[in-house]
Design goal:
- The protein is mainly α.
- It folds into two domains: 43 residues, no CATH class; 65 residues, no CATH class.
- The chain is 48% helix and 3% strand.
- It contains seven helices and two strands.
- A hairpin with a 2-residue loop joins strand 1 and strand 2.
Length: 130
Amino acid sequence: MGYDERGHCPMLIDGKCSIYAHRPRTCRVYDCRVFPAAGVTIDESDKALIEQQAQRWRFTYPTDADRVRHDAVRAAATFLGDHAGVVFDGAASPNTTQLAVLAVELHDAFLGREPEPHEVRVELTRRRGR
């Protein structure tokens, strides 16, 4: 479908899909905003076009709380990257997509503080057990 001059989907009206019932499956299951939201760069060569579009997203913060939450997502992504060996208990580090999604999922643990790596590992294990 392409993107408008701001890098947004042309079917996005007031921040919502204007053709929700008919939008492509990709739009329903894959949201490239997760990468810039988490502050990560897609480093997989087969996703260069996604990276190009994802980096065009800009975020606004209607409230201070929204900015604090976004900062927590970015802090979580940085932390997960820096502490992958401990947090993932020696398992393979997540790829860029997994890292960005985990940062969004775990960001509450980073609101106003930096948790210990073992705390994040416990929370990750708890969430995976659901």
